[in-house]
Amino acid sequence: MNDIKHNIDNFVVYLQIEKNASPHTISNYRADIERFVAFAQKQGTGDVLFCNISQLLIRSYLSSMHVDGYANATINRRLAALRTFFRFLSNQEGINNNPCENVHTLKSKKTVAPILNSIEITALMRLPKQDDLGKRDLAVLELLYATGIRASELTEMRVEHLDCFTGCIVVYNSGGKERIVPMGCKAVAALEAYLRQSRPRLYQKYHGAPHEYAFVNSKGGRLTDRSIRRILTEYVDMLSLEQSVSPNTIRHTFAIHMLNNGADFCSVQEILGHINLSQIIPSIGKERLKSVYKSAHPRA
Questions:
Q1: Which of 1, 135, 156, 231 lies at a C-alpha separation of 20 to 30 Å from 123?
Q2: Cα distance between residue 235 and residue 64, in whole Å
Q3: Pairing of strands 178-182, 168-172
Q4: What pTM was estimated for this model as a whole?
Q5: CA pair distance 208, 214, nearest whole angstrom
């Protein structure tokens, strides 16, 4: 019971056999528990007898990580490992008091969704070359920014869904629900160049079953979600931006730029497919929020 190594080894066997946990998960659990044991030893618990591990010691451990600057998510993950470990000991080894009981996880800090400014967007659009893949990449980037669609929605798009004449696209979400989304003239121009020139030449290289997906890879096959992320990362790296940029970043950027330039909330939600805008509200200019409030509230 008091042999810490013996109990950790038994816990690992339990994770392997009873829980069918992955080697990565097991490695993380063991490391998290051993970190706590090292902390407990420094607090003077000697051989870390489980009867000496109290709720106060657990809280002290969490507090020390907070002081050391660990993120709440990391602290909560390590606490979760201890909870699982002591629950195992309670059920399998017969310890009476679980020191993790009534120790609550820390609240995750709400993060503001990252966005790009207009200068960074302009610089991004200037990077693709004028060859077939470059024209495809520009069409991808322009469409993501012009419409705020998801990468998954772009990969599902067929040629017939893109209407450059009216400047609109038909978008289907994961549930199959359809919405019509307008796009600007720059996105239309990039799409026309890609659809008329580049896509036919890329599609000629394809030897699989015929398809009508709008965006294709270098061999004419359907462009994947992963490929879109890779394309975006490639150009973001060229700009040497400090922040991480994903297709979702472009989606948030579209929403913020629309709202800050006078678009109403409901229209932006409709275009995006009823996204929850609470994540990006902090990025909306204060003057814009004041303007919306004054124009809408009867006693403003």
A1: 156
A2: 40
A3: antiparallel
A4: 0.60
A5: 16
